[in-house]
Amino acid sequence: MTAEEWTAVRLSLLVATTATLASLPFGIAIAWLLARGKFWGKSILDTVVHLPLILPPVVTGYLLLLSFGRRGPIGSFLADEFGIVFSFRWTGAALACAIMGFPLMVRAIRLSIEAVDRRLEAAAGTLGANPLWVFATITLPLCLPGIIAGAILGFAKSMGEFGATITFVSNIPGETQTLPSLIYTLTQVPGGDAAAMRLTLVSIAISMVALLGSELLARRIGSRRQTA
Amino acid sequence: MSLEVDVEHARGSFQLRARFTAAPGLTALFGRSGSGKTSIVDIVGGLIRPARGKVIVDGQVLVDTERRVFVPAHRRRIGYVFQDSRLFPHLSVRHNLLYGRWFARGNGGAAADLGAVVDLLGIGHLLDRQPDSLSGGEKQRVAIGRALLAKPLLVLMDEPLASLDEARRAEILPYIERLRDEAGVPILYVSHSVAEVARLATTVVIMAEGRVTAVGPVLDTLPLADANDGGSVLDATVSRHDEAFELSVLTTAAGELQVPRLNAPVGAPVRAYIRARDVMLSLRPPEEISALNVLAGRVAAVTPISGAQADVRLDCNGALLMARLTVKSVERLALAPGRPVFAVIKSVSFERT
Predict the structure, then answer these.
(1) ipTM above 0.90, yes or no
(2) Which terminal residue of chain A, N or C, has fewer Cβ atoms less than 10 Å from its own Cβ?
(3) Class of A11-176 in CATH
(4) What residues of chain A lie within 8 A of the CB of B112, using their CB?
């Protein structure tokens, strides 16, 4: 593999990991709100969270460009106040991936929170645990398999994200050129087929390792619960 | 400890309106399923917010809807043993037991020592197991221990034995008795089993259709309990064992009773429950009959219950005995208050205390 290809692989892993870890706390919070909350506008929140799943990725990318670009309202605020710049940076790619993977992540976590027996939470309350402790010591550990599944889904989505990323942060080698972007580029140039094929195999391998890893983790949690 | 409950609550078409005060010891909430017993303990435990009313434990107001007081469950220090033990599946037995202790630190009160509670409930060998691997009886003992270690001011038990078979119940009952007598923790105990209540309760609160119909000491109150399963409770002591016939002889205020050999030492106190339908009455001392137990007494009251049947309350030398007869028999024997009779007892269920 060429240096350019390695760079794209490394960048993709960095972007996907960052996107997954940074969005996980928000994903858990939103999933909990949707699973347990009773508030006005809940179905609106649900719809907004699912929007990236339904919209064409290019549309999501364009909306990100409009709002988080250097001249967008959020983008200019973050750049002026905190010096955080998303547009045409790898952080922008991570943001696009996080948003695109978010609905999948929230869905998996929400289902597992809904499956937690609320009677156990009530029991923890009678033992003196306030709602925050109940969440940390009962709800969270019991829905851990769902959180892992949600994180893996988000990671996989991030590894494959193309449309929103290329629209928002373009296809700059070494900065925003992720694996899918490079594969796309290679298919557009004569003689790029062999390289595209290599990267396709790398992409398949990464996805399978991630999936196997999550399976093993889920099984270990399950067996610890049975025996230890 | 005192517990004062005066609440109103509606759940669908079901109306709960209950008021009672519980004395120290074990207070049993007794009634059929659907009579509102569980709603009461859920209100006391803070799992349900009542529409109106007050709950006061030891002078501490937990709920007062008029003054808009509602202490959340986690600040009440009320232990709750659920029918379905509700052990945390991701924690070992040890960590289940210790779960509440951490939150209770600095609360003072009864020393909640893991070792003592483990000994009391006989669960030392289970500490490193996971809840999934425990039997129903073991789970309930762990659940009781978990509630105790949170240093509660009051323990609620919602039919803790209902999901268990007879053998498992027999396994747990002694532990609940020890809890009542040794740990000194007041208990509010929900049950629809007369035998359980007769054995465990100090005070009985009888409920029917969302109302409290009677409150009082178990000996006086339980006989009024249930129109379909009335009976009476006699306090007794084992006076001797008849090894030849494998019988035990008990002394009660009403007289001697002979029962199948009890596994209790001479002098041990026992509490006998005699179902009203297991008592026959005779105007003359019955001779040459198979029943071993005949007590002499006087009719105290005759209460018709439904069409054909009536309950006859007997005063047997100060002890109360109930007999369920047909109205026809009552008329044939001309049973009226003051009339001397002999009660033939067909069977007795004995409960050690």
Answers:
(1) no
(2) C
(3) mainly alpha
(4) none
pLDDT in tens, A4-54: 889 999 999 999 999 999 999 999 999 999 999 889 999 999 999 999 999
CATH number attached to the domain at B231-352 = 2.40.50.100
Q: Are strands B154-158 and B78-81 parallel, antiparallel or unpaired?
A: parallel
Domain ranges across chain B:
3-224, 231-352
Indicate yes or no: CB of B103 within 8 angstroms of CB of A141: no
Q: Does A188 touch chain B (CB under 8 A)?
A: no
Which ranges in B30-92 belong to alpha helices (H)? 37-45
Q: B3-224 and B231-352: same fold?
A: no
Global pTM exceeds 0.80: no
Per domain, the residue ranges of chain A are: 11-176
List CB contacts (< 8 A) between A225 and chain B: 89-90, 130, 132
Query: Is the Cβ–Cβ distance between B154 and B185 less than 8 Å?
Result: yes
Q: Does B150 contact A225 at a Cβ distance shorter than 8 Å?
A: no
Nearest to B148 by CA among B192, B182, B198: B182
Cβ distance of A225 and B92 shorter than 8 Å: no
Residue A158's closest CA among A220, A88, A103, A89?
Answer: A103
**What is the CATH T-level fold of the domain B3-224, as seen in this structure?**
Rossmann fold (3.40.50)
